[in-house]
Amino acid sequence: MNFQDYFANANKNLITVAQIETGKSVDNAESIAAVDGIDVLFVGPLDLSINTNLRGMFEDDKYVAKLKQVSQAAKNHAKACGILLPHAKWIPLLKELGYTFIACGSDGNYVLANMKSTLDSLRG
What we know:
By secondary structure, this protein is an alpha/beta fold. About 50% of the residues lie in helices and about 15% in strands.
């Protein structure tokens, strides 16, 4: 609403999010979280599952252990831990693991669902 205020304070209000999408980044989560200026460790679950040969195995103990490792690193350095969930059913588990920066769904899926609905209406 007030561009002058926004412009004057924008850099003070930024958050820096480090993507955690590989096994190597999980292994280095402590070092990444220790970097001054990083506010959030943010897991890309599909990329992480593919990179660690656990494709789509979001409830597998090995995969959950990686999520725990990231959340513990974030906690150790007083950082937030986040994730983009493919499905809302995993919200309770991630909250239990200490994730507080949670997004659910994706823009692509929302666009696809709306396009399908529109197409169904046109065909109907």
